[in-house]
Design brief:
The protein is 23% helix and 32% strand. It is an alpha+beta fold. The strands form six sheets. Strands 18, 19, 20, 21, 22, 28, 30, 32, 33, 34 and 35 form an eleven-stranded mixed β-sheet that branches. Strands 12-11-17-8-9-16-13-14 form an eight-stranded antiparallel β-sheet. The C terminus is likely disordered.
């Protein structure tokens, strides 16, 4: 059967997972009456909750006697490590663009890597049935983006279709019949070349490992495209590193091929197909799996380096161990090392004391997803404020710079530009009308200046602004950037918060806790209205007497307190503060409790 290997790439929330759902349904991948959840490719709980794709996943469909292997890739740059590896497995890409928003930052990020590999994209203008869709403008912007990224003449001559993934149709013309996705299927089969490796079927087996995972029964498993040769179950192979050094020799215990949403065991696989192999113990991503007589490793796509680092430590607060079951540093360390094995974009290093670990990654969202997964598994952690990773280039200290694309109402453009270019040392690149009373602002801003900015951005734009960011490059260090201006309210006592005390403290600032919550000395319970930190007593109750007077029996009416999400809490804290994460609750606290606070906390407990 002839093969086609294609990846679907797009910005966050442009509809690629929904489109894959329809491709699977219309190709007959599901049996009649089979119950399939919406966004079937998003199998991870967090993916479903947040509506984003985190892990690259493969599937396959059959169309007119040909098998099409489809890879659904992450749209967020924080998970770009997945995208970089996946593109080496395919012969074409399907670029999905929202007809209203046009190409966005992650579109540019993934497309640049696809064009560099010489892939010829198919452009799908999705959501053309939206009221604010402007497919002609979006198509022109896509062409300009291709030109800016240095696309060749062949790549600039890209075919395009108009589609609605949710409605399940795609047409070559905007005013087409709008019945089904057959036009897209036919275009993929016609435009995407068959794997060239099929011609090398008689050569020794070689496969580049692009994704790594673990199976409770099969152990370590690696997925990739067979570059040449064929492999059968029981075959003896060896693994080579990127430098050509031999890592191990192993016997293939299982071969799995993608069929619809499932992986099916097969006896033999051939050049050009995307398969999963089991049996190895040491081989990992970017290694070459090959026949024993092969001595040269396949070239592997380099991975962009991490840009931020976060300290993961044990939860040593007075309330530690009440919610979670995994609190020891060795258990946390084992879990982080296991994550680093399967996620090449994450690096883990021990700190001198051994009680905390430096975890480096691509962005705050990637760290937030890792922490959220760990807390759901029963871990308790203390998390530091993210710090950017600096590089020494030609004797100059350089920091990571991000390209920020902002769409805001015209009236808020001034305050956004002031915050990005003034306070956060960014450079304004472009500012132009985006239609419908909105302005598009493009700026290059230091990564450290964007830590904690998103919440302030939503406040400045009254929740109407949209901000997207992507790693742009490295630039000389731009000097000090002012952090959070407000101080915090810190509890001086340990116990259960009292509504009357919180009511009296509302003049001091905004509260992060409500009444009847367990608190301890050193815990951050609110944001001070001034720049300094302030110790307060949230346990102080009302003094009771039998004397009644006007005004003394006023009802306590509390202003709703702020509840941080995990990412918001990590972005909010300062350098001397920590986020305490447990399976049930997220707290903020000062990094160091003095001896008096510790004694007071232990006495109260």
């Amino acid at each position: 059967m002839q093969l086609r290997n294609i990846a679907i790439i797009a910005h966050v929330d442009h509809g690629k997972t929904t489109l894959v759902d329809e491709l699977l349904k219309q190709s007959g991948a599901f049996r009649e009456g089979q119950q399939v959840s919406e966004r079937a490719m998003d199998s991870n709980d967090i993916e479903r909750e947040r509506g984003i794709t985190i892990l690259a996943k493969c599937t396959s469909v059959e169309w007119k006697g040909k098998r099409v292997n489809i890879v659904d890739t992450p749209g967020h740059a924080d998970f770009g490590g997945e995208v970089e590896r996946i593109l080496s497995m395919v012969d074409g890409v399907c670029l999905l663009v929202d007809a209203a928003e046009g190409p966005m930052p992650q579109t540019k990020f993934v497309l640049a890597k696809a064009l560099a590999l010489g892939l010829r994209p198919i452009v799908v203008l999705n959501k053309v049935d939206k009221p604010d869709a402007e497919p002609d403008r979006a198509l022109n912007e896509v062409f300009d983006l291709f030109a800016n990224l240095g696309a060749s003449d062949a790549q600039l001559d890209f075919p395009h279709v108009y589609a609605s993934g949710r409605s399940g149709w795609a047409d070559m013309e905007l005013d087409g019949p709008r019945k089904d996705l057959s036009a897209l299927f036919d275009l993929i089969v016609r435009h995407v070349p068959a794997p060239a490796q099929v011609a090398h079927d008689s050569e020794p087996f070689r496969m580049l490992a692009t994704t790594l995972s673990a199976d409770p029964y099969l152990g370590r498993i690696l997925t990739g495209r067979i570059e040449s040769g064929r492999v059968a179950q029981g075959t003896t192979l060896k693994a080579l590193s990127r430098d050509g050094d031999r890592i191990e020799q192993f016997r293939v215990t299982k071969i799995l091929a993608f069929r619809g949403l499932n992986q099916t065991a097969v006896d033999e696989a051939f050049a050009g197909d995307i398969v999963t192999l089991a049996g190895m113990t040491k081989a990992t991503v970017a290694d070459t799996l090959c026949a024993p007589e092969v001595d040269t490793a396949l070239p592997a796509q380099p991975i962009d380096p991490p840009t931020i680092t976060v300290t993961f430590g044990i939860n040593d607060s007075p309330l530690a161990g009440r919610d979670g079951s995994k609190v020891q540093s060795r258990v946390i360390r084992d879990r982080l090392l296991k994550e680093a094995e399967t996620n090449v974009a994450i690096k883990v290093a021990d700190t001198p004391g051994g009680e905390a670990f430096e975890v480096s990654g691509r962005g705050e969202l990637q760290m937030g997803v890792l922490i959220e997964n760990m807390r759901r598994e029963g871990f308790e952690l203390s998390i530091s404020r993210p710090r950017v990773i600096l590089q020494d280039i030609d004797g100059t200290r350089n920091e990571p710079i991000e390209e920020v694309i902002v769409d805001v109402d015209d009236e808020f453009s001034g305050v956004v530009i002031d915050k990005l270019t003034g306070e956060r040392k960014g450079d304004l690149v472009e500012m132009r009308p985006a239609g419908a009373g909105k302005t598009r602002i493009i700026a290059h801003v230091p990564s450290r200046g964007l830590i904690g900015y998103h919440g302030q951005f939503l406040t400045d734009t009254r929740g109407s602004g949209v901000l997207n960011r992507i790693f742009h490059g490295w630039a000389p260090h731009k000097g000090a950037i002012q952090g959070r201006r407000q101080g915090v309210l810190i509890s001086m006592e340990t116990g259960v918060s009292v509504a009357y005390a919180l009511w009296n403290l509302e003049d001091r600032g905004r509260m992060f806790i409500g009444p009847q919550e367990q608190i301890y000395a050193g815990m951050i319970i609110g944001e001070h209205s001034r720049e300094n930190d302030l110790e307060v007593n949230p346990l102080k109750g009302k003094k009771l007497t039998n004397v009644r007077a006007s005004g003394t029996d006023e009802a306590v009416r509390l202003t709703p307190h702020i509840r941080f999400s995990l990412e918001e809490a990590i972005a909010y804290i300062d350098d001397d503060e920590l986020v305490e994460v447990t399976p049930k609750i997220i707290r903020l606290r000062k990094r160091i409790l003095d001896s008096n606070d510790r004694k007071r906390a232990s006495r109260s407990e």
